[in-house]
Amino acid sequence: MAPIGTLIGPTANQRNYKARIVAKHLGLDLATTPEFQMGVGNKTPEYLAKFPCGKVPVFEGSNDFTLTDSSAIAYYVASKAGSDSSLLGKTAEETAQILQYILFAEADFSPAHAGVMYPLLGFHNYIQPAFQAAEKDLARFLDALNTILIDRTFLVGERLTIADINFACDLIMLFKLYLTADDRKTYRNVARYFKTITGQAAFKAVVGDIEL
User: Fold this and answer.
1) Residue 210: its pLDDT value, please?
2) pLDDT over 90 percentage in the chain
3) What confidence score (pLDDT) does residue 173 get?
4) 150-187: per-residue pLDDT in tens?
5) What is each CA distance from 138 to 8, 13, 125, 128, 204, in whole angstroms?
6) What is the pLDDT of residue 53?
7) Which of 2, 48, 52, 63 is the least buried, fewest Cβ under 10 Å from its Cβ?
8) Would you state the torsion angle of the CA atoms of residues 161, 163, 169, 173, taken in this order, to the nearest 10 degrees?
9) Do the Cβ atoms of 101 and 156 come closer than 8 Å?
Protein backbone atom coordinates (compact mmCIF):
# COMPACT_ATOMS: atom_id res chain seq x y z
CA MET A 1 0.00 0.00 0.00
CA ALA A 2 1.39 3.39 -0.99
CA PRO A 3 1.85 5.98 1.77
CA ILE A 4 -1.03 8.40 2.19
CA GLY A 5 1.56 11.17 2.26
CA THR A 6 4.68 12.36 4.05
CA LEU A 7 4.87 13.84 7.54
CA ILE A 8 7.78 16.28 7.40
CA GLY A 9 9.60 17.24 10.59
CA PRO A 10 11.73 15.80 13.42
CA THR A 11 10.39 12.37 14.34
CA ALA A 12 11.22 12.61 18.07
CA ASN A 13 8.67 15.32 18.77
CA GLN A 14 5.33 15.25 20.56
CA ARG A 15 3.60 17.11 17.74
CA ASN A 16 5.04 14.71 15.19
CA TYR A 17 3.80 11.74 17.20
CA LYS A 18 0.11 12.59 16.79
CA ALA A 19 -0.42 11.72 13.13
CA ARG A 20 1.95 8.76 13.33
CA ILE A 21 0.01 7.23 16.24
CA VAL A 22 -3.24 7.73 14.32
CA ALA A 23 -1.76 6.09 11.22
CA LYS A 24 -0.40 3.17 13.25
CA HIS A 25 -3.73 2.65 15.01
CA LEU A 26 -5.58 2.56 11.68
CA GLY A 27 -2.99 0.50 9.79
CA LEU A 28 -2.18 3.33 7.35
CA ASP A 29 1.23 3.92 5.81
CA LEU A 30 2.55 7.41 6.57
CA ALA A 31 6.03 8.32 5.35
CA THR A 32 8.32 10.28 7.69
CA THR A 33 11.59 12.26 7.50
CA PRO A 34 13.89 11.00 10.28
CA GLU A 35 16.81 12.97 8.83
CA PHE A 36 14.97 16.30 9.14
CA GLN A 37 16.81 19.00 11.14
CA MET A 38 14.74 21.61 12.94
CA GLY A 39 15.99 25.12 12.19
CA VAL A 40 17.63 23.91 8.99
CA GLY A 41 15.13 21.96 6.92
CA ASN A 42 12.30 24.38 7.66
CA LYS A 43 14.39 27.42 6.65
CA THR A 44 15.17 26.48 3.05
CA PRO A 45 13.62 28.46 0.18
CA GLU A 46 11.99 25.28 -1.11
CA TYR A 47 10.34 24.57 2.23
CA LEU A 48 9.18 28.15 2.77
CA ALA A 49 7.74 28.28 -0.74
CA LYS A 50 5.36 25.48 0.27
CA PHE A 51 5.00 26.33 3.96
CA PRO A 52 5.56 30.10 4.38
CA CYS A 53 5.26 30.09 8.18
CA GLY A 54 8.13 27.61 8.53
CA LYS A 55 6.09 25.47 10.96
CA VAL A 56 6.78 21.81 11.72
CA PRO A 57 5.51 19.22 11.36
CA VAL A 58 3.83 19.62 8.00
CA PHE A 59 2.12 17.17 5.69
CA GLU A 60 2.51 16.76 1.96
CA GLY A 61 0.13 14.48 0.12
CA SER A 62 -0.68 13.79 -3.48
CA ASN A 63 -1.88 16.46 -5.90
CA ASP A 64 0.08 19.15 -4.01
CA PHE A 65 -2.20 18.84 -0.97
CA THR A 66 -0.50 20.26 2.15
CA LEU A 67 -1.31 20.86 5.82
CA THR A 68 0.64 22.70 8.51
CA ASP A 69 -0.89 22.07 11.94
CA SER A 70 -0.16 18.85 13.85
CA SER A 71 -3.74 18.42 15.02
CA ALA A 72 -5.15 19.16 11.57
CA ILE A 73 -2.73 16.63 10.08
CA ALA A 74 -3.74 13.97 12.63
CA TYR A 75 -7.42 14.69 11.94
CA TYR A 76 -6.88 14.34 8.19
CA VAL A 77 -4.98 11.06 8.62
CA ALA A 78 -7.81 9.72 10.79
CA SER A 79 -10.32 10.63 8.07
CA LYS A 80 -8.44 8.54 5.49
CA ALA A 81 -9.77 5.34 7.05
CA GLY A 82 -13.30 6.40 6.15
CA SER A 83 -16.09 4.56 7.90
CA ASP A 84 -13.56 2.14 9.42
CA SER A 85 -12.25 4.89 11.67
CA SER A 86 -13.74 5.29 15.13
CA LEU A 87 -11.19 7.95 16.02
CA LEU A 88 -13.38 10.82 14.80
CA GLY A 89 -16.54 9.74 16.60
CA LYS A 90 -19.63 7.86 15.50
CA THR A 91 -22.13 10.73 15.74
CA ALA A 92 -22.14 14.45 15.06
CA GLU A 93 -22.23 15.02 18.82
CA GLU A 94 -19.14 12.86 19.44
CA THR A 95 -17.26 14.55 16.62
CA ALA A 96 -18.10 17.96 18.07
CA GLN A 97 -16.87 16.87 21.49
CA ILE A 98 -13.65 15.55 19.97
CA LEU A 99 -13.06 18.92 18.31
CA GLN A 100 -13.87 20.61 21.62
CA TYR A 101 -11.01 18.78 23.37
CA ILE A 102 -8.58 19.26 20.49
CA LEU A 103 -9.25 23.00 20.61
CA PHE A 104 -9.00 23.05 24.40
CA ALA A 105 -5.57 21.44 24.10
CA GLU A 106 -4.43 23.81 21.36
CA ALA A 107 -5.90 27.11 22.53
CA ASP A 108 -5.70 26.82 26.32
CA PHE A 109 -3.56 23.95 27.55
CA SER A 110 -0.63 24.14 25.11
CA PRO A 111 0.12 27.87 25.58
CA ALA A 112 0.20 27.41 29.37
CA HIS A 113 2.30 24.28 28.96
CA ALA A 114 4.77 26.14 26.73
CA GLY A 115 4.87 29.09 29.12
CA VAL A 116 6.11 26.75 31.86
CA MET A 117 8.26 24.26 29.98
CA TYR A 118 10.02 26.47 27.44
CA PRO A 119 11.80 28.67 30.01
CA LEU A 120 12.73 25.57 32.03
CA LEU A 121 14.23 23.94 28.94
CA GLY A 122 16.03 27.11 27.85
CA PHE A 123 13.91 27.68 24.74
CA HIS A 124 12.68 31.04 26.07
CA ASN A 125 14.07 33.53 28.55
CA TYR A 126 12.83 33.10 32.11
CA ILE A 127 10.64 36.08 33.07
CA GLN A 128 9.25 35.46 36.54
CA PRO A 129 5.82 37.16 36.25
CA ALA A 130 5.11 35.43 32.91
CA PHE A 131 6.32 32.08 34.24
CA GLN A 132 4.19 32.33 37.38
CA ALA A 133 1.12 33.28 35.33
CA ALA A 134 1.70 30.29 33.04
CA GLU A 135 2.07 27.96 36.04
CA LYS A 136 -1.21 29.25 37.47
CA ASP A 137 -2.97 28.68 34.13
CA LEU A 138 -1.45 25.22 33.74
CA ALA A 139 -2.61 24.20 37.21
CA ARG A 140 -6.11 25.47 36.42
CA PHE A 141 -6.30 23.47 33.20
CA LEU A 142 -4.87 20.33 34.80
CA ASP A 143 -7.46 20.65 37.56
CA ALA A 144 -10.21 20.99 34.96
CA LEU A 145 -8.96 17.94 33.06
CA ASN A 146 -8.73 16.01 36.32
CA THR A 147 -12.39 16.82 37.02
CA ILE A 148 -13.48 15.88 33.51
CA LEU A 149 -11.77 12.48 33.87
CA ILE A 150 -13.26 11.55 37.27
CA ASP A 151 -15.53 8.90 35.77
CA ARG A 152 -14.11 8.57 32.26
CA THR A 153 -11.54 6.29 30.68
CA PHE A 154 -11.52 8.31 27.45
CA LEU A 155 -12.41 11.93 26.79
CA VAL A 156 -15.27 11.10 24.42
CA GLY A 157 -17.37 7.95 24.56
CA GLU A 158 -16.11 4.52 25.51
CA ARG A 159 -13.23 4.14 23.08
CA LEU A 160 -10.02 5.83 21.97
CA THR A 161 -10.43 8.90 19.75
CA ILE A 162 -8.11 11.43 18.22
CA ALA A 163 -8.88 13.72 21.17
CA ASP A 164 -7.09 11.25 23.48
CA ILE A 165 -4.10 10.86 21.16
CA ASN A 166 -3.80 14.62 20.82
CA PHE A 167 -4.05 15.36 24.55
CA ALA A 168 -1.78 12.51 25.65
CA CYS A 169 0.95 13.75 23.30
CA ASP A 170 0.66 17.21 24.84
CA LEU A 171 1.07 15.68 28.31
CA ILE A 172 4.27 13.74 27.59
CA MET A 173 6.75 16.48 28.45
CA LEU A 174 4.89 17.42 31.63
CA PHE A 175 4.90 13.87 32.96
CA LYS A 176 8.51 13.26 32.02
CA LEU A 177 10.04 16.51 33.23
CA TYR A 178 7.71 18.60 35.37
CA LEU A 179 5.02 16.84 37.41
CA THR A 180 6.25 15.52 40.76
CA ALA A 181 4.99 12.43 42.57
CA ASP A 182 2.81 14.71 44.70
CA ASP A 183 1.46 16.43 41.57
CA ARG A 184 0.48 13.05 40.14
CA LYS A 185 -1.45 12.29 43.31
CA THR A 186 -3.20 15.66 43.07
CA TYR A 187 -4.07 14.99 39.43
CA ARG A 188 -4.62 11.27 39.90
CA ASN A 189 -7.32 11.04 37.22
CA VAL A 190 -5.04 12.70 34.68
CA ALA A 191 -2.21 10.34 35.68
CA ARG A 192 -4.47 7.30 35.27
CA TYR A 193 -5.67 8.60 31.91
CA PHE A 194 -2.13 9.28 30.69
CA LYS A 195 -1.03 5.72 31.56
CA THR A 196 -4.09 4.29 29.79
CA ILE A 197 -3.57 6.22 26.56
CA THR A 198 0.21 5.86 26.40
CA GLY A 199 -0.24 2.14 27.04
CA GLN A 200 -2.19 1.69 23.80
CA ALA A 201 -0.36 -0.50 21.27
CA ALA A 202 -0.18 2.20 18.58
CA PHE A 203 1.11 4.77 21.05
CA LYS A 204 3.85 2.46 22.30
CA ALA A 205 4.80 1.49 18.75
CA VAL A 206 5.50 5.14 17.89
CA VAL A 207 6.69 6.67 21.17
CA GLY A 208 7.94 3.62 23.06
CA ASP A 209 7.71 3.17 26.81
CA ILE A 210 7.58 6.48 28.67
CA GLU A 211 9.70 6.45 31.80
CA LEU A 212 8.00 8.40 34.58
Assistant:
1) 87
2) 91
3) 94
4) 999 999 999 999 999 999 999 999 999 999 999 999 99
5) 29, 21, 18, 15, 26
6) 95
7) 63
8) -140
9) yes
Q: How far from the centroid of its chain's Cα atoms is residue 146's Cα? A: 18
What sign has the CA pseudo-torsion 138, 139, 141, 142? positive
Predicted TM-score of the model (pTM) = 0.94
Please report the DSSP string for 59-105 in residue order: EE-GGG-EE--HHHHHHHHHHTTGGG--TT-SSHHHHHHHHHHHHHI
- All residues at 6 or more sequence positions from 167 whose CB lies less than 8 Å from its CB, including other chains: 101, 105, 109, 145, 155, 197
Please state at what angle helix 92-104 crosses helix 162-177, rounded to 10 degrees.
20
Please, are residues 212 and 175 in contact by the beta-carbon 8 Å criterion?
yes
Round to whole Å and give the CA distance between 189 and 16. Answer: 26
